[in-house]
Design brief:
heterodimer; A: 375 residues; alpha+beta; 5-stranded mixed sheet; 48% helix; B: 420 residues; 5-stranded antiparallel sheet; 4-stranded antiparallel sheet; 20% helix
Amino acid sequence: MRKHLLVPAALLGLTAFGLTGCGTDEPTSTGEAGGPIAVTASDSACEVARAESAAGTVSFKISNTGSKVNEFYIYASGDRVMGEKENILPGVPVELHVELPAGTYEAACKPGMVGDGIRSKFTVTGSAAPLTSDQKLADATTSYQRYVKSQTDALLVKTEEFVNAVKAGDVAKAKALFPVARTYWERIEPVAEIFGDLDPKIDGREDVVTEGMAFTGFHRIEKDLWTSGDISKDGPIADQLLTDVKEIVTKANAEKLSPLQLANGAKELLDEVATGKITGEEDRYSHTDLWDFAANVEGSKAAVAALRPALEERSPDLVTKLDAAFKTVETTLAKHRAGDGWKLHNQLSQAELKELSDVINALAEPISQVAGAIK
Amino acid sequence: MVSRRKALTLAGVGVAGAAGVAAAASVLSGGGESATASGTAADAITFYGEHQAGIVTPAQDRLHFVAFDVITKDRADLIELLQKWTAAAARMTAGHDAGVIGAVSGIAEAPPDDTGEALGLPPSGLTLTIGFGPSLFRTADGVDRFGLAARRPAALDELPAFRGDALKPEISGGDLCIQACANDPQVAVHAIRNLARIGFGKVTMRYSQLGFGRTSSTSRAQATPRNLMGFKDGTNNLKAEDGDLLTEHLWAAPADGTQWMAGGSYLVTRKIRMVIETWDRTSLGEQEAIIGRNKGEGAPLGHAKEFDQIDFARKGADGGPAIAMDAHVRLAHPEQNGGVRLLRRGYNFVDGSDALGRLDAGLFFIAYQRDPRKQFVPVQRGLAKSDTLNEYIRHESSAVWACPPGVTGPQDFWGRALFA
């Protein structure tokens, strides 16, 4: 929770080109006969019925035949998310509609919602005029908005589950859901921070609550869960949390971040990691900081990915550097996996934390150059 | 290039006619680059030369020493870093910003390539001196990460364990070190901070040490300073003016067997914590007997003046040796060590206080030499065994470094010959 992101007036109100947000409520209109492309996701496979499509809105119908919760992504180069569905439950098919210009993509399922996923090539053919540099920047805004939408959908679902567990007095379940719900929050923090007053209500830590403000939100419940274990009086706090999250989700989905805000957001997410997560300050009672750490990095990567087409044109060397640095962070972080989640912060040695700090510094330095490269 | 000080036209041009240090500098020999001593504390020291600056350069008042571990596995990455570091070091020692754009001349959307805290400050005699640790050539696990194992100089042996060592591994050793010395602490810190930033992703800071009040003179133009025990330190130090002695005791030579180190020197760093509370309640007579010099003048006991030739056979009033057999000055003196000399360049440190309410203070010992196996190691063995001073000091960190020869010009870089 920090300052508002600056919104330079000149950069607001960019016209979006070509891409539209997508949701399951949209009509299916694939460029081809035969309806949506069937995707069968299991715990160990990801079968995409067709590996190609014509340019335009492409629809997928994903069925989870495994036992783990799954995710489905369509990635452009550099893991730019063109469309995704999270929280695909076994036996509950979902549809995804993605606007895809001609090009080469990857389809990916993520059983257990972790790792790089099971990937396969997906080719889109057709003709489209190459975008100008300015169009690419405008697209970044739309592309990131799509990402925000996917995250806020999941944030709502998981926060509601968390809140219900708290109100039901189910400490174990609430503890398990706490870091998961926060993941979606931490990925889109640059957007959340724009709504300054809501951020501390949802994510304020005891020491940053300003005078005259109550200590509420995720961390208040975290404290009760992990210190006293008594959440019997937390019902109203949980209700308020859900209300606040709903409000911020509505606002976030309506918000268009300028390319410069995206660039700065990518850097600030890493600053969050460096100052709050590596130190263990964020989740001081639960020690689930690595969930937030991973989410911040994923969010940073998503913001950079949205800018990627413009960045590749303006500063290809920087893109190469960023790819390598992201890879290093991911590899280093992956050492601390525990099941579908992460080790607790207090299970890491000082040397392991220092190593994480080093790789974040190595990534944050080139990321701090992105804003200058796209201005 | 943005100059921090517009008035500074040519870095390293000494101020002609300046008294003292500059005059002494003019008679230096065998010291190449560092013969350019600064006329005033604000001036620049020439970065380029036969030897690295910061060794025989008249010791500046302030230190920021840092040890790095290399985290990149890529030799080309490491070489690129050394090139970038060298370029930044050349700029900063001349009083310029670390990067080519500068602290305040870039675009608003990008972070500056210099951190800015030295804006408006003169070069302040900044020197930056690099050293390579044994672990750069081969890790403790025996891994040759950069194809350098075969190029490790024999003289760069890990130091043996000495009696009484209380070393903390986390502040000992390291793959690379940089010694920043300047007459303004802000200038020294600025240099290390910017080099560390350039190194993100390739190196990680292992430890660093601030120091003040140089504890040795490295030029006859300088008065002998005092360490935190209150005694003059470094009276018999090797000095910049000792041309032949420097050739013999300080600079590595081709004949020593490592071509790339010719003109370089080996550095030993030791963080020596002083238990000053107990020292301070030790009687004056006892303090002087332990050191072997009087506290006021710094004269060897039984002698009149600081620089008197020491006669170790001289008897005191009680008929025993004037300078006790276990006095620090006797044990450390070249005469008692087969003529071995070191160029000491240490600094006092006070790192706040400890949990017991004691000042965390002492001496960050820095000594340059031609071969530690023949110089520092035997002297320290003798001291560790017999020096009464050991009751009041603890060696908390230790490292040994190969400091390559000087950078000859803008096309050269730190350690180029090692990677050639």
